[in-house]
Amino acid sequence: MAPPAQIFHANNNGDPASVAAAKVTTKQTAAPAHSASLLDADEFCRHGHQVIDFIADYYASIGTYPVRPSVTPGFLLDKLPEHAPSRPEHDAFAAALRDVRDHILPGLTHWQSPRHFAHFPASSSTAGALGEALTAGINVVPFTWAASPAATELEMVVTDWLGKALHLPETLLFSGGGGGTLLGTSCEAILCALVAAREQKLAQIGSSKGIGDLVVYCSDQTHFALRKAARIAGIRRDNCREIPTCRDRMFALSPADLRAAMDADVNAGLVPFFVCATIGTTQTAAVDPVGELSAVAAARGAWVHVDAAYAGAALVCPEFRHVTDNAAEGVDKFSMNAHKWLLANTDCCALWARRPAALVAGLGMENEYILKDAAEEGHDVVDYKDWSVTLTRRFRALKLWLVLRCHGVEGLRDHVRGHVAMAAAFEAMVRADERFEVVVPRQFSLVCFRLRSPPEKFGGGEKAANELNRRLLEEVNATGSGP
Fold first, then answer.
1. Are 221 and 197 in contact (CB under 8 A)?
2. With 169 labelled, which of 114, 306, 405, 458 sits at a CA distance of 20 to 30 A?
């Protein structure tokens, strides 16, 4: 965390002695005439116009870039100097922008390209991008309420706004006794949920068991972020149960299989404590039966976290509420990435907790009186540093608030519905072409399809089909410009 720019406290309330001391201290440590730590308004306007023009030109021509660069490791190291300049060159900012254009852009994967179909492309919008600029320019560090009261309270407002727009249960919102926060990614959200669940479970079981007995459950379709989070949280690798799924169940996690796995662990003297259900898996956008899984987990004392990183955005549309069927009432944590489908630029993951006190118990600090403020006395304020892994954190709420203000809930619904309609049209085209097959019925805006394997030419079976489609994928990606 960077030290303060001044060595005296600015809040002297006009006290003459304090002001005099401040003047003396300032005189003794006089800054240079031009300090690089300060934002000069004229310079900012001049360079800011250059950046805005640069970004606008980039988006105007983004379709002309190859989606994936044709470079080899070390390509940029060979183009840039080994050492930073000791002094800036003439018109250094413009020269640096030229390097971005000539050396850096050609080496990037262009996630916003209309030809980018890999993963779930991070969304962007004018409001989101300019919200990022506002956040960077204001540059506050809202780790506690006292550090930036408006930043904390805006985060509380926008997480409740978004939760209501997604039709989340009242119990996950501040207005219903829960609460939300904004993190960087779903990986962070899962880790925070895991640590909170771990601490509560260890407190419950006391000294009779240890962390080595705790078991985590997910499906074989769950994002590997869960395994990474479990490893960081100290859960043994062989205590992370990946329960197999099948095509007949559209690759959703079976409550019966979860029950059997948990019971087997209990009989073996282990302690089930965490279940990660998914709404919209990465591979097929599968939807786990959250309500049934929650009932199984509750009967065995385990927490349920819902990872809705991609498809959680679809809940903004009433027609998709059936995927949770109000089952989110029984979950402990729910997270989704607003940067995946809701026009907020990366990064912006929303995490809601039914019991925020459990997050604070697992992630909070004690006796940090130096971070308190007299204005907090008598108020139950939120210090977001106790809701996440990091202390220093970004003012993400400003960006999300701007997106919600400028697009509105109906605008977000139109955005999601437009993508779903395009996917439905594409799915119909694939089904009409006998060379291809749709592997699982479309969920949301993801169409899973593959080239059929003619038995007389390539042989039958899954192995032949997989090899054929691997070759097709390699050929498509090798075209340079993309499909």
1. no
2. 405
**Strand (E) or helix (H) holding 24:** helix 16-28
Strands (E), 220-364: 240-243, 271-278, 303-307, 333-337, 349-353
| Per-residue CA distances from 128 to 133, 151, 294, 397 (Å) | 9, 17, 35, 11
Taken in order 424, 428, 434, 439, is the CA torsion positive or negative?
positive
Q: Which pLDDT value is given to residue 330?
A: 81
Residue 478 near residue 67 (C-beta atoms within 8 A): no
The CA-based diameter of the chain, rounded to the nearest angstrom, is 93
Find where tokens 């409001």 sit.
127
* Average pLDDT across the chain, whole number: 87
3-class SS of residue 408: helix
Residue 337 β-bridge partners: 349
**% helix, strand, coil for the chain, step of 5:** 50, 10, 35
Q: For the sheet containing 303-307, what is the strand order?
A: 179-183, 349-353, 333-337, 303-307, 271-278, 214-219, 240-243
Query: From CA 229, how far away is CA 309, in angstroms rounded?
Result: 15
The structure's pTM equals: 0.88
- As given in the structure block, the two tokens for residue 442 are 């479309």
- Angstrom distances, CA of residue 273 to CA of 187, 229, 415: 18, 14, 38
Closest CA to 399 of 159, 53, 112, 169: 159
Secondary structure of 122-143 as H, E, C letters: CCCCHHHHHHHHHHHHHCCCCC
Contact in structure between 403 and 343 (CB atoms under 8 Å): yes
E strands present in 179-251: 179-183, 214-219, 240-243
Indicate the residue type of 188. E
**CB-based contacts of 39, cutoff 8 Å, min separation 6:** 137
**CB neighbourhood size of 417 (10 A):** 16
d(CA 316, CA 312): 8
Burial of 203 (0-12, 13-18, 19+ CB in 10 A): exposed
Rounded to the nearest 5°, which phi and psi values hold at 482? Answer: 95, 170
Secondary structure element (H or E) that encloses residue 450, with its range: strand 446-451
Beta bridge partners of 334: 306, 352
Task: Supply the pLDDT for residue 373.
Answer: 62
- Inform me whether the pLDDT recorded for 217 exceeds 90: yes
Give the C-alpha separation, 101 to 106, whole Å. 8
Query: Which of 139-143, 213-217, 453-457, 466-470 bottoms out in mean pLDDT, i.e. has the lowest?
Result: 453-457
